[in-house]
Fold each of these.
Amino acid sequence: MASLRDIKKNISSVKSIKQITYAMKMVAAARIKRAQNSILSARPFALKMESLIDDLYHELGEEDLSGTVVSQLFEERPAGGTLCLMLVTADKGLCGSFNTNLLKAATAWLKENRGRKVCVVAVGRKGRDFLHRLKGLDLEIAHEMVGIFPKAGYVHAQLLSDAILKLYRERPIESVTFIYNEFKSMMTQNIVRGQLLPLKRSIQNDEQAPQLTSGLFSFEPGKAALLGELIPRNIGAQLYRMLLESQAAELAARMNAMESASKNATELIDGLTLKMNKTRQAMITTELNEIVSGSEALSN
Amino acid sequence: MEKNHLLLTIVTPEKTVISEKPVESVTIPAFGGEMGVLPGHASFVVQLVEGILHYKDGHHKEVFAVLNGFAEIHKDKVMVLAESAELSKEVDEERARQAYQKAKEILVLRPADLDLDEAGAALRRAAVRMKVAEFRRKHKPQ
């Protein structure tokens, strides 16, 4: 049976752990507000960007597009090339199943594409470290971005999009897939997997939009050049949203994890305190017993 | 309010700076030079360069430093999508000057890992901020 002193030590260590987890929870709670706000304020930009591209598309004929830099981004590439994965994880642990689920999803993706050449763009330390540890795969970390959370800005998204577009231009990459955690609510995060490149022509096929605007707009510089500038920016805006979502989701996950950790610590402390008191009483009883039986032995 | 006005919207990825504000005229730092926009302007899509954007609303005049982006003018609506837009009041002249100096030094020293585009862009950004600050100083006393 543990001695009184051991239990006391145990209690004090659990208490200090609880203090830390509680502090982490409070920090995450304070930051999540800001993270949510930045998601909200990034939304109008993305929407306007979409509508501008939409307008531009209706102005743009197929012949304007062909042969430009942008058209490369739309073309389907021959199957069998390198695959590219963009994995957005957290930099730090202690956020519940946030990273674990992401890494599981990444592993599943890698399994699906077993035997293919894969290059990875890793955002966040956890994902990078995980991919470094993987052996026996034809895998290369082409670009990494570490230490941007919890202060991810548009600059980071831009650097990221530049890196991805450069990769896409220079190598025979078939497609770019992204995996990240979406901030659904305070309690839940959703893993989202989708394709970043080649771009889908969904906007162009949307024919029900009025064609009235056609021919109305003037452009400076030319349409194709404008689109060539706009599309990378749009990718940047998309990536920015992903980074923000992931950031908010990480904070929410950490808040929940730390809250339950604090709760568990409290329970643990209660149990240990009870145990300590019981031990103490048992000791007193034993001592009394000894004294009484000793004096009785003397008087007889 | 007059009938003839433009609705100006400026958004950046980080925040919405101005949303559908009625103004009399806007001057945009366009790709091929400054461009003034008045009500009734033709529909136009234009790329922006680093520069000064100002709008006039009666006697009130406001100046922004904008960096890289696009503007769409359609049906008396001006929509500016900029990577960054700073109100002239928010520009820190001292910091801009320091950044300008630093960017210049980098361009002169040419370290091994120099990114020429990046350094040039930094220099232009700082120059724009300084210009805005100067503009503000000139127009303050009135």
Amino acid sequence: MRSPRSRVSFCATLLLAASHLGSSLTVPQVFKNTNLLRTIDASKGYVKETIAVIIENTSDKPQTEYYLPFSVPGSSAVSYVECKDKKEGTPCNAEAVDDSSDFPLKYYKITLPATLQPKGQVTLSISAGITGALEPIPAIIGQGDKQFLSYTGDRYAPSPYLTEKQKTKFRAANGEIPDYTDFGAKDVEKTGFTLTYGPYDNVKPWKSEPKPESLTVRFEFTMPVIYMEKLERDIEISHWGNNLATEERYWMTNNGAKLKDQFSRVAWATSSYYNPPTAAIKSLLFPLRGGSKDAYFTDEVGNVSTSRFRSDTREAVLDIKPRFPVFGGWNYSFVVGWNNDLPGYLRRGKGDEYILKVPLLQGPSQSTSYGEVEVTIILPEGATDIKYLAPITIGKEERFLHKTFMDTLGRTSVRLTINNVVDDLKNKDIIVTYNYSASAAFRKPLVVLVSVFSLYVISALLARIDLSIGK
Amino acid sequence: MAPAQASFFKDPASTQNIRGILRVVILLTIAAASISSRLFSVIRFESIIHEFDPWFNFRATKYLVKHGFFEFWNWFDDRTWYPLGRVTGGTLYPGLMVTSGAIWHALRMISLPVDIRNICVLLAPGFSGLTAFATYLFTKEMKDSSAGLLAAAFMGIAPGYISRSVAGSYDNEAIAIFLLMFTFYLWIKAAKLGSAMWGGLCALFYFYMVSAWGGYVFITNLIPLHVFVLILMGRYSGRIYVAYSSWYALGTLASMQVPFVGFLPVRTSEHMAPLGIFGLIQLVAFVDYLRGHVSSKQFNTLLRAIVVVITIVSFSGLVLLTVTNVIAPWSGRFYSLWDTAYAKIHIPIIASVSEHQPTAWPSFFFDLNFLIWLFPAGVYLCFRQLRDEHVFVIVYSVMASYFSGVMVRLMLTLTPIVCVSAAMTVSSILDAYLELDTPEEPDEAEIKKAKKSKDASVTATGGFLSSKAPYIGIYSITSKVSVIASFSVYLVLFVLHCTWVTSNAYSSPSVVLASRMPDGSQHIIDDFREAYYWLRKNTAEDAKVMSWWDYGYQIGGMADRTTLVDNNTWNNTHIATVGKAMASGEAVSYEILRKHEVDYVLIIFGGLLGYSGDDINKFLWMVRIAEGVWPNEVQERKFFTARGEYKIDADATDTMKNSLMYKMSYYNYQSLFPPGQATDRVRGAKLPAEGPVLNTLDEAFTTENWIVRIYKVKDLDTFGRDHFSARAFESGKKKARKTGLGNRATGKKGRRNVRV
């Protein structure tokens, strides 16, 4: 008898062996891309690649699985892949293929929303967030200099299928694009913020040999490249306090071009009069849900007084200013937190069941990418049967008891770790269901009552003891 | 009805419970008042550790909580006093940290995981409530519980004590004043009862005090002094003997367990008084014992012989021990208590601390308000009764009054006794004037009778002065009302004054500065934390930061970087080295910086904002301390102009202008202003048009209001040049290029002109 776990590892070994033998993932040639439009949006400090493609089933059998690779050279990585039927709007499932033999390609297996009959066509819209694909060039700039980012990718959209017609649009942050690869012969056209490559006819399936042609674009990026190395986000529920407390701890760096000389306060003070765009992080704006209250902004040395918070029932904004402008390569870590009334987020289900719906990620409105996100949901003491439905794949899940104020057992908590996140995920909700009985709810007041009462009894007894020797 | 009620109130037996409850309620209210009046800074700013020393205590507490007690005991801190390091575990008073650590653990045990920072911030207010309670107990022993309650209330809100115990001022004094009062209470109790148990308890709290504050020496000397005075007054008794012997033996042994104290109690002059008194009291006890067994004539000869022999033996022994250096002579700090000019001449580092200056007279009124003029009256009342414990109050008053006049910070030890004495006065006045019934006019005969019986009782108890006290009552309602009303006004004014002083003078964290915006809203100037946090986040983990010693603890606590010197001024030479680096020219300084592997230099500059506590104003102390070690290389005279003025403008001396401190302070400052307009707002001086040039340092970070400026020490030049020629070369090149550009620009212009 083999346990399922050993079977998994056995399969993994097989797969590893297969990749070492050189026999890479074989994609059955059952589709062709009739028309493909690739949009590379680099206006946010990370790359958002959207592929709109009409695919046709060229085999004689109905098909459901379509493969699509994304090119992730160097330290770049795919953060998420989303897919939908463009006409119907129905979402389809995209799943990473555990195979790295075709490096730098990362394959995704897309399950079509409906089985595609032979000769049938469907239009898919697949978008992916790719982090680490932009690099500041020059890597070191002066305090007042312009910052440029550079993107390097493939000239043709990689695909394991034949593509009859394709076009690539590159979207820069603004119109200033000093360098870009020009393949000649009216191959590329620049209009405003956008570069359009193509159209190209009959592009053959992607092969690592000969080396595919690459395109490089260097464009001006007037915003900072905000990267949160780590985010710890705690969501704590209190039934008694009728409160949903959120605390977020950020470790931030600016991944933009590094500062050439040292920081000059004179230059910074004089330039701040006319408020030019800068590659330094001056402030962060956290859009919060309506009704948020008691916001705070602190860091390791205490409260930071440079924050503004306004809130009404419809929306709330927390505007924070780090202690110092965070230039390229500089770090800053901070904590923000706020409270919400619980009824807006918690609903009672059948019996003792409760359903909680909270955003998985909030975070600044400026485009941001995250290295590691740890979301901890702290449920009341005594909550059981926790189930959750996350909007994206969760890297690691951990369940533990979080012991804090006046807990006897500790509060039931779930920690979800997600790596490599971009802020397209913002404001997507996670749904958590749990059981919480009335007896568990009354545990805390009872414990407090009993302990205070016993304290009285003990002190009363002690006061009555006479320790004197003789009268 | 009315008489029944009156008798109900007066009958002590029937009101005992009510009085007890009332006392508890009043004490709790006093504790609440004293805690809440210390929270101004938390409400106005935040829960933050204040000033300088508390930052070290906070850092040490965090270390204790993180690594446990034994690690803390053996803590060698390599992040301070680079490259020497500091045996921190053995050179601090651990009482404060251990107290907060214990509270932290205790709260965790009952599942209240409070952040250690909040415990540290709120420790001083919490203990102030206990101090009020200890003062109550102490005063109760002196007079009665109503005086005790008044003393507790005074102690709770007296600014003299608040100055050292607001929330966030996490310093040794925070718990030490409570321990001081409680030890004294236990001592009085022990001396009154002659109980070894109370003596032992007194020793226990004395040990706690020793572990918490260097000011324990005050107790060490005051209790023997009390005993000595009692012996001189011929009031030796078995009670005193038991109390003192048990306190001294247990307390001294216990105090020696604190590593920082170690063998000091038997080896230094400061601790010789209790030892001497211990010997003396044995002698007196022995003589007392002999007196009971030998006839009086023999006794007198014997006594004389014993006293002469023992005095000669012990004194010569003491001299011998001092000469052979077994007993350390008086320390400099001690001398400065007797001669206020001593420190200025011999130990500038002590004199450079503002709290070591002699007290200005208004500060007595500022810190104690109406208590200060009630204080002598209270001492007088002690003379009237003059029981053993009253002698203690008198001795304490005399000593503390003297010391508080010598050093500002010792106002702290004066405050409790002022509160006690003033409470006794006020209570006596209220006792006399708040009596509801007008006394019946007594007959002449009755008065005589009363006088007689009183005389009898007085002679029986052996008191003096009090024999003159006839039966006195207040007959006129007017005088009752006027006295009570005026004292109510004084009390109300006292409360107002205390609140005002606390809120305005003692509640600033000094890490954060507050100012007002034009629209009246509060604006926080947070430059210190801006700079420290920048250091913490954007420099190498092991970077060494050089600054004047004032900022050492803050850099260690907030920036978490290695420092060269800090507020624990144990090594004068090292501090002088930093002073020399700041006061010398770049060539000399750079060598010092390289030798100490300094990466960053941090200075405080208030010129832009008008912040007067900056480094240029402290600069002369750096010069003086450096001069004390290198009199040939650093000379204070050279920093003054020919007319003897300390100037930073165009008239400043060359030595001043070339010193590293001057250059770092004003580097690039001129470029903030239109040409020739640069002014220093602290010193109200116009600066020379040409700013200083730095060759060996780079400006790394300057805070928003320029209060903190951080410079990076340049690496050795890549081409092996010295920094002066390298900079000259580079600036020359730059100049050439600039002029080239300029030419081109003018050329263009010229061409255009031609075209037109």
Amino acid sequence: MLLMKVLKNDKPGIWLLGILLVISIAVPILNLLVPESSPFHISTYTVTLLGKYLTYALLAVSADLVWGYLGILTLGHAAFFALGGYVMGMYLMRQIGERGVYGDPLLPDFMVFLSWQELPWFWQGFDQFWFAALMIMLVPGILAYVFGYLAFRSRVTGVYLSIITQALTYALMLAFFRNEMGFGGNNGLTDFKDILGFDLRADSTRIALFLASAVALAIGYVLSRIIVSSRLGLASVAIRDAESRSRFIGYRVENIKLWVFVFSAMMAGVAGALYVPQVGIINPGEFSPLNSIELIIWVAIGGRGTLYGAVIGALLVNYSKTYFTAALPEIWLYALGAMFILVTLYLPKGIVGLQLQSLRNLRIVRMVRKIRGAKV
Amino acid sequence: MSVSALTIPVKKTFSLLLFFFMSFFVLMSAAQQTLASEVSAEDSLADAWNALSKKNYTKKAKAIEVITQQNPSEARPALKAMLEGQLYYAKRGKALYFLKETDNSYVFTPLFDADSALEPIVQENRRGFRKVKVNNRLRSMIRQFLAVLQLTHEDANIRLSAVQELLKNPDADAAGLMENTVEKETDDRVVAAMRTLLAVIQLENGDEAAQQSAINTLADSLNTSAMNALMAYEAPTKALQNKAESAIQKINDKRDLYNKMETIFFGLSLGSVLALSAIGLAITFGVMGVINMAHGELMMIGAYTTYVIQLLMPDNIAMSILVAIPAAFIVSGLVGIAIERGVIRHLYGRPLETLLATFGVSLVLQQTVRSIFSPLNRSVETPEWMSGAWQINEVLALTWNRLYIIFFCLAVFAALIAVMKKTSLGLQVRAVSQNRTMARAMGVRSKWVDALTFGLGSGIAGLAGVALSLLTNVGPNLGQAYIIDSFMVVVFGGVGNLWGTLIAGMSLGVINKLLEPWAGAVLAKILVLIFIILFIQKRPKGLFPQRGRAAED
Amino acid sequence: MKAMQSLREFSRRDRVFDFLVQAEPPALDLSHNIILYLEGINKSFDGFKAINDLNLYIESGELRCIIGPNGAGKSTMMDIITGKTRPDTGQAWFGQRLNLLEMDEPEIAEAGIGRKFQKPTVFENLSVFQNLELAMSQDKRVWPLLMARLNGEQRDLIDEVLTTIGLNQLASDPAGKLSHGQKQWLEIGMLLMQKPALLLVDEPVAGMTHQEMDRTAELLTSLAGKHSVVVVEHDMDFVRSIARKVTVLHQGSVLAEGSMAEVQSDPRVVEVYLGE
């Protein structure tokens, strides 16, 4: 009922959810049931790759929520993604148990290697999935709360905020590089064996993770949609466009920013948690400021402030990244750099905006709608 | 900094010194020989030389004593060679030779020039020659002798290092020698070192009065041996014991003080680098309101310019840095103007978009450099006039390169202030930054000013790159490492305030270095970042905010 | 002894601990018929005295015009009332009980002071209707906002205001598309949605045609009585057409106060406006 109401005026959203539903059914069938010799077979590698893209798309939606609707250009959003990933990594590390290289029943390999005697307090409890699942939301959420509370209350805005979010993720990266932090230092967490008792390398587990990512993206999208179509969403846009004006009509700007930011951070954390078991590793590199900025360009290319645009951008940029880094590694950074420049100069509304414009200009509305629908 | 860059000059100076020694002793011995009239002395000297080829170490020791007392011209090179195991004697005739090994041959040069009958002998092995062997006792005798010899050298630095050598292993005999020389000594540093040495010896051997004065002397010294002597000192009376303890305390306090000074110096030099990299940003960010994420890459371009100039003039490394300074300014400045004209001018008034677009520019620049120069790190050679250190006292030494960087930063800053305050460009820049429309109405060509301002900021980034190239390796990621720090400095100092940027840079550098011994380098950096994050939240406009009504909107 | 006493004090049964008392915003108290008190206010920026010992009282239900040359401190005064700027010294009270200097912008807005800015700032990407919906007096905390649904009563209120400001036809257009005058009205409409006790209106007719100006005058006069209205304006014709009581500000303090005729005949005012 609520879903219907939210999606009533959101055709792209309906398309998005529809497509997610279709691939959630098609991909497992094409992977598991269609024989490998068939041209329609999808390899497990591709499934994992698609699953990874979906987690990126979820991350992009979370970033679009704060950038597109609240006007907070966060250059540290990948930090929440990485934190969620680390929490999942800790759970997966604890699942290895005695199968590690050193065979210690309790301590992960890197701790044995650093000759630690006991499990640090902050690793307690992560052998329980429910606890880890809770932390996946709580850890990024709490960091976002503390950071946002300090930043928004003292009215740090605009580029200042961007720069300190970048400093935040940079500081976290430096911290996680340290062995003393107890998160595997340079190498991060890896060599995962299984999740909830299922072998991570099994095709069926991969499919399950892919499906979980699709479901998470769908839920994340719908929740974000609920927010942006509520009066809270209107207030967010108001804050984005004229912050001090919103204050004068009685909105607690800092609270609205804070809670949307926290929600977005939690979403990013979930995305990270789904990302880690699919790629099999989490290391401090995920905190690198470059990742956060790249994330922003996904949103910018797709179309800021449209949610589904963020999904399109994430999929498009990451697909071309996979393609370029394999085929023409030299070209990738040029291409990425050019994307940044061209999108900001000529496509301020992203690909989605381009289509909306052509929609108005060309007047062949039906045809374009068809094309757009097909692409979404 | 690479080790090889440091050791090469050291080796050179060492061989140079050796050459001076040689020629000096040749002259001295010529004078001595004419004076030496006592036949018996000459006889015993000859005997002594002969005794070196004996196997009996007691006799050898005796011989060395004789040789050192007479001190003929050959004494120093011969004993030095002996110490290094390169003094040989012919099995037949027992004449003494220096051995010089080359790749595949052994060259034996006779010790005495007078033995003209003996030509240098070149052969493929050491057949027919035997090494003059030394034991530990002889070695220390020879070292002592060499040190004492240097005590009378005309170069004060050599005398100083000789005394310091003796201080490492204080010896009553050496003290005897020094008592004579200290009176004639003119160099203050050498006198101080000699007095320390004497005091160390007196502390061990003197009576109570002498010990007391020795403690007084040592309390003023910063030398490690002085400290060790005081630590090992067993006082005969309680009063002396207390005195020694307070002397140790005094020395420790002083050392702490100098260590702190050194830390602050390190902090200032780090701060200079930060300030240098941030000043350019302060102009583009503060004065123009433009976020230039490619600022780090402009620094990288400056560093690569230095590298290329060194490649172009490999024979003149000393000059290359001086050439690189204007070159880097121009190259980075031009790239900056190109960025402004090509990208930024379309985005004025949209700071967040500018940020993204310039980030794209930074990626392109990085990849371009990777394509041209390869992704590997390059290193820029430090010119000789920048290596070494300014030894203020035994604890405190300020390395020249760090000192130069501090000076360089201050000079760039002063020049920039002068440009902003005294030139018409500066006036126009300030006018445009305060009120663009008004300035334009007054006839300021704001587009032209924008481009030049951006060029100026970028040029200064290039200068920062020159400084950086001397401190770290030059690589495509050079800029990225500094961009966040630079932003922190600008934000900390207060946007649009050049003085604020300088002070913020310096203080962040010092804070960082003060935290380092306590927390380690990485943690110190993290703490500084967290500090700034919290600081901005307390004072969103930085240390020195622009005040006034306009700033409140 | 003392400890015993404080213990007894602590355990008194009729006492309610401070932290248990619900923080209830004190209501607007107009028992003395004065809605705004500004007393002895000073504010300087970098040595420039923008406000200099300003004393101003606005009666409940009054329509007051404030005039003054550029730099007289009109905008700064508005900023102080709405909490944007803090004065260096002085007192600012809203009714008898609300100390404006202890409140921030949203609190002041919630308490019932609405402000229209000199430069119209409406939310350009939102529709006219949405602008009004946002401005509506309502629970503006995060969770209620997320759950809020427009009910019939609220819709009626918005429609009513739309009619008042004459933007009925344009309700679903983005506010960015409105003309300058329409934006001004929309802002006044947003003010009305807030149901403020006191309206601060900064240069409402700047850039308006005569027709629009007349309508605005009509609008503002009709508001007085229900609300207290403070209008800051340059346009003398406009002020004359609406003013009952005029205050002249000069160099940060009140130069003259009275009816338009009184003020215009005051020699000091003439000097300030016409020069030596």
Amino acid sequence: MIQLVSFYIFASIVIVAAAMVIFARNPVHSVLWLIVAFFNAAGLMVLIGAEFIAMLLVIVYVGAVAVLFLFVVMMLDIDFAELRAGFIKNVPLGLLLAIVLVAELVLGIGAYQAGAVKLGTPEAGVATVSTTVPNIEAIGALLYSKYVFLFETAGLILLVAMVGAIVLTHRRSHGTRGQSISSQVQRRPQDATRNVNQPVGQGIEL
Amino acid sequence: MTSFFQSLGMSYEAAWFTATIAGILLIALPLMLAVAMIIYAERKLWAAFALRRGPNVVGPFGLLQSFADGLKVFLQETIIPSASNRGLFLIAPIITFTVALMAWAVIPFADGVVLSNINVGLLYILAISSLGVYGVVIAGWASNSKYPFYSAMRAAAQMISYEVSIGFILICVVLWAGTFNVGGIVEGQRSHIFGFINAYAFNPLLFPIAVMFLISSMAETARAPFDLTEAESELVAGYQTEYSSMAFALFWLGEYANVLLMCALNVILFWGGYLPPVDWAPLYAVPGIIWFFAKILLMFFIFAWVKATVPRYRYDQLMRLGWKVFLPISLFWVFLVSGYLMFTGHFA
């Protein structure tokens, strides 16, 4: 009962929020609706017992990706008249995209109704996961044994992407003065100050 | 609690539902009271550090000061700036406040006393605390005013930066405990050192990251040395500048509920949670919840101490500490801890 009710609540909010992402005039509102959609999708994941995936969805997408989206979008200076003017120009491209998406959807549903694809080798099949062990352990056992090379390749690709991004944007700036914390910490009073016992009434040269 | 409601003649589902609602109220309402008292305690502490008296007029020893403040704020007019984004402007403090309460669902107050004992408890806390930034960011943007907006930008960058190293620190603890379950992490600390000290913090391998976690949690809650988001000398009052009345109070309550949560997390991850400090039978006569609250208050004292004594960081120093110091060290520590555990056959 409660599963059914929560499924319908989560699912309908996901759909409404996803629609609002497109229909919202203001890009910031779009991003916020996107966050609502992510969050409720995580709720759906919890319902099918994939609590680890649900938490990752919230941490990665809501906690990091969407914040960066919001970061960029908030700083946009939006001119709504210009947005509407661009609409006519982009209609053919939009229509093309829509046709491709509908075709894919039809294909996908057709393939689904033809039956599931058998994954893995015929003799071994896909490793089945028992429902008694926690999610994380099950995923870890698969990820670090059977799919370890795929996993490490994914890590390597991400590393290369990260290094690439840093190389592309990093500029060594000349002429700027930075703070050298270690030299500040190592500096002692005797390096910078001097005690002078000067007789009264005489000047001093430093 | 579910079985108690079942004994009243409810069906299992209805009993579970009632028990959960009751549990939420049992956590949220005392938490609000605790927040009010902790604000009073902190003001008294700051006053003591500055050789002042602090609040001492309302009620005995000024104990009712926070309630008087609450009443004052409640009676004020809610001002919504005409150029602001009305809906988001009002939602922002509600998000901050709600998110600050949500994470308490997985905090164990004593052995088995937890609203929701889930396997991915620690990840849940991480997920919820990553939501906290939205209240601030939305408030800053919806105010349509430049200082709140600067503050929102700072808050977003700061929280993301420190969440990275917090994530790695949590991994070290999880590796040692072997579980993401919060209660399991507390139980993992039972007689951890020399067979009788109940805390990870006394483990020489884990002590450095316990200190790092304490500092990161101050940065994550935008507290004292890292309160760049509301640096009054630069940003008026940061993201709260345009807020008044109850909306402002919700930010305030949410902020302190977050601070309490971070204190509780410090206690749970490194200082043995609801366990007594040493594994000695007579100490177990004191209920776990008392130990837990005592440790939280001690941790909160450290937070207040730091806020009263340490000057504010500059923004580039804050970023340097997060990315150039904490991130490499915590990353290295993941290697170190997992290597040590592998080498000693902890997982076997």
